[in-house]
Write a structure and sequence with these properties.
Blueprint (H helix, E strand, L loop, with lengths): L1 E3 L41 E7 L2 E8 L4 E5 L7 H12 L3 E5 L11 H13 L14 H16 L4 E6 L5 H5 L5 E7 L9 H5 L5 H12 L4 E6 L8 H9 L3 E6 L13 H16 L3
Parallel strand pairs: 4-5, 4-6, 6-7, 7-8, 8-9
Antiparallel strand pairs: 1-2, 2-3, 3-5
């Protein structure tokens, strides 16, 4: 059940919170202390919660139009994640950001990264090392997508996973409500050894459903840096399993976060175009 805890806020927020490529180097968004102690609100975003299968997580929501779920990477919902989400809002979508780990908003400091890693490593919601298993959080995310689609209508819901959560968007595709899954540098299970580096963090049954939907026309967009060791050989696995339904967007180099900290504008543009095609002007 998706529930608002505050009145939805209007506007895109881009006038107050310009995305990274429109800000001067080192500039943060004005009118808001970047990481105030104990801060749990994101200015301009409506705080809510979603409960499913006995699990409840806080959500942050903004915008109008078809739904897109943006699942933050480690360390959490950072300024760059918010900026990317604001861009999705600006093109006419309702964005929901689940708060699964870390602080809100999260610093990008090494201390914040280590703190979140400790949190996720002991959590049973995430499968970190086991092969051919779907992370349990996928059930909660699928429920969130179903509720959002039921509320907003349209062709379906988009989903973006990043790094630690990259493969979650693929797992969400098991539910028919998800029609535009985006995998940004998917990194689970941790790429320790060849088998884990190739694994998609999906059970055999979930992989079979994903392949069925891909064969039926549901495309998957993936982004990565070619030298990113955290991604392993998953893009080759995705190509082998999904064929032409997997759209590979690759950039040279050994950086990691294609949409946020190491943002590639071409990558962001490809994601926004993917959502326009699948959610705003479907054939």
């Amino acid at each position: 059940m998706l529930r608002d805890l505050a009145h939805p806020a209007g506007g895109t927020g881009l006038d107050r919170y310009p995305p990274p490529h429109l800000r001067e180097r080192g500039e943060r968004r004005p009118n808001r202390p970047p990481y105030a102690a104990g801060m749990t609100e994101i200015e301009g975003w409506s705080k809510g919660e979603h409960a499913a299968s006995g699990v409840t997580h806080t959500t942050y929501r903004r915008g109008t139009g078809p739904g897109v779920i943006v699942i933050s990477e480690i360390p959490g919902i950072t300024e760059d994640v918010i900026a990317f989400s604001d861009e999705v809002v600006a093109q006419g979508c309702t964005v929901v950001m689940p708060h699964l780990f870390g602080k809100v908003p999260s610093s990008e400091s090494p201390v914040a990264v280590l703190g979140t890693l400790r949190q996720v490593c002991v959590s049973r919601e995430f499968t970190k090392l086991k092969l051919r298993q779907t992370s349990p959080i996928a059930d909660w995310l699928r429920s969130l997508a179903r509720d959002l689609h039921a509320e907003l209508g349209g062709p379906g819901v988009g989903a973006v996973g990043m790094c630690f959560t990259g493969g979650f968007a693929l797992a969400m595709m098991v539910d028919d409500s998800v029609v535009a899954p985006v995998l940004a540098q998917p990194s689970l299970p941790f790429a320790v050894g060849k088998a884990r580096g190739a694994d998609l963090n999906l059970s055999p049954a979930d992989l079979a459903k994903v392949k069925e939907r891909a064969a039926g026309g549901c495309q998957v967009l993936g982004l990565r840096y070619t030298g990113d060791m955290a991604v392993g050989t998953r893009f080759d696995t995705l190509t082998e399993e999904l064929g032409d339904a997997f759209i590979r967007v690759e950039f040279p180099g050994r950086k990691h976060s294609t949409l946020t900290a190491h943002r590639q504008q071409e990558g962001v543009d490809r994601v926004l175009a993917f959502f326009r095609e699948k959610l705003l002007s479907p054939s």
